[in-house]
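Q: A reviewer asked whether we had any structural model of the full assembly, not just the individual parts. We don't, so I'm hoping you can provide one. Inputs are below.
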Amino acid sequence: MMGFQAVVLWSDVLIWLLVAAGAGVGVMIAKNPPLLAAWRRVGANRVGMASATVLLAFVLIGLLDSLHYRAQLESKPGQKAVFAVEVLSVLDALAAPLRSRNEKTYSAPFATRLYAKETMDVPGKGTVRDYPRLKHGGQHLGEREDEVAEDAAMTAFKAGVLAFVGWLGVFGSVAAVNRKKSPKLKLREAAFAWDAVLLTLLLILVFAVPLFWLSGYYHVFGTDKVGQDVLYQILKSVRTGLIIGLVTTLVMLPMAVLLGIVAGYFRGWVDDVIQYIYTVLNSIPGVLLIAAAVLMMQVVIDTNPQWFSTAAERADLRLLALCFILGITSWTGLCRLLRGETLKLRELEYIQAAQAFGVSSWRIIVRHILPNLMHIVIIALVMDFSGLVLAEAVLSYVGIGVDPTMTSFGTMINNARMELGREPVVWWSLAAAFSAMFILVLAANLFADAVRDAFDPRAA
Amino acid sequence: MLAYIIRRLLYALPILIGVNLVTFALFFVVNTPDDMARMQLGVKRVTPEAIQKWKVERGYDKPLLWNSEAAGLNAAVDTIFFEKSARMFVGDFGRAEDGRDIAREIGNRMLPSLAIALPTFILGLFVTITFALTLAFFRATAFDFWGVVLCVAAMSISGLFYIIGGQYLISKVWRLVPISGFGAGLEAWRFLILPVLIGVVSGIGSSTRWYRTIFLEEVSKDYVRTARAKGLPETLVFFRHILRNALIPILTGVVVVIPMLFMGSLLTESFFGIPGLGSYTIDAINAQDFSVVRSMVFIGSVLYIVGLILTDISYTLVDPRIRFE
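A: Here is a predicted structure for the entire assembly that you could use as a starting point for your response.
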């Protein structure tokens, strides 16, 4: 067993903090009947639960990619342990074959040969110009190169059957638990949309298990310009997208909630000042403010290289800075909503009664106003996510997004921007990045709709 | 009316000053001019003299806010803040890194931006409102359901995909229009069709869904029931009553955008090589030309505030109940 040294990046801290906060909010919701009822409505929504299952799969990938370490290098006994410079994650370790089996340059999905012809020395034939064999993709086939389709279909079928058997186990246990809890109800009549969850799980398993099985033998989504597996890049992009979508809201939430409630509750000059601040920030077009802030951040990072010991740390800090900048440009909308709602709430009888009893302002805000604003906050959280994931791609494309060394959907698309102009067309990187992003954003949008319908039936 | 507009313009002034201060802080306080000089000149050949020369050439060698060496009024005037930030109020944006006058460049590039943005805006509005009205007319049918599904799917697709995919399919595979570029005069239409089309298509998803909700909210109101009760045909109810009333909330979102059309679209312009303000901004970002980015931030805010004022004025035109006090 090789030793390792755990590395905790700042974004890891925040993402695990989010998981903890999610668990905390879960406990809070369980104690709050109206919120619990609303979440039960989300749970009964089939489309909502199906998309939640897909999102959970993405989150799982992102979490696996958020446990970082540095592997121990081989050293003689008695020597001090030396650790690799490269920072890896648990996901990297699980997908080690994907990460390390690089080709020379482009190769199509399921290809056994490179995209470009090369001059090679063939024993007995002299120099030949031909497509060279890949170092890894389809190597197990040996001379039987034309049997890729049969071999891949066979492997996929085997893996699919295995996935189905695994799913049957899950299905059986869910059905058994359900029967014990409510013997009269069938699974599809249960209050929680188990049927949608199980069906989605089946789809995910039947798709993902063969995909990963095949990726041991082939480059399932092809390789990019420097020969890196596209599937691996997609997996790494998930974490970047999740951090942009989740940490940004985490950053802006305290500011938006605090300022919004304070402005609405105290009114007067406090309200004027806060309104002035958000009108000013709102007047600056978002993209331009982000561009200006990112440019300035780049200067700070470039003039202070001594802050970062590894390249991963620098890319990580730049990612977090981007989250902060996006958060600062996007808190105004939520703040205005909360201010308006607080203005309405503070005139209600129960708040006035509390004021008459001499309850302090902060206590009124925390006990009586904040809980009644929760639905707005939750709706804003889930609605923002998909927009932020899409924004990351555009910003990275423009050159004001994440660090170019960090894998994300935006940098993938940016690197592949000229590929459609090639002859023959290199379509796989773009297709894979756009499809993965589409699935993530679609699931987020559908889930957001389900949450909004459950919390605010009026707006549906 | 006039008094109202003047008062609104006066309200806008403190906000513009705020914007100016924010950009000033962002561009000159977060990083000192020395940092920017080092960045621009590259790390290797940086000598204190070179930095000093770079600063003097651009007028960044002055104190930030207060020049204690100058006498009288000059103490406030002979500073970076006055020279670079305050003078933007009178339309003096200074010079870009390539030595060109930014204000003139902006004037030249406004027209190509408008040539793309205006048709996209009008056509997009027409298409999405028509589509949304149709969906609302057939509400709670299979057509409505699949229309909404299509909208959600369309808004989940990245804007980059519409551009890259459209360019590939229409220009490269079908060879209908040139991939990118811009021509002068009437010849320009061949270059404009594709970006306008892509702009309209990429906006359909989210706007249609938004307008449909507005129409549906209107459908359930009392006056609609009255109109139906007195025997008006459903088409008349829709076009005479619902469409007109729904225009008020639609205006809120739409009028704000009109002045911003001058800014152009960053992505579309850079993909299609259109010499407008959007591509100007992108080029400036890539070349790290801080003065151009700063000017665009300021102009963008001015246009946004103009949009807000226009929104308020347009309210009175469509809704006689709203009066200026």
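A: Points you may want to mention in the reply: The CA atoms of residues 73 and 131 of chain B lie 61 Å apart. Chain B touches chain A through 48 residues (CB under 8 Å).
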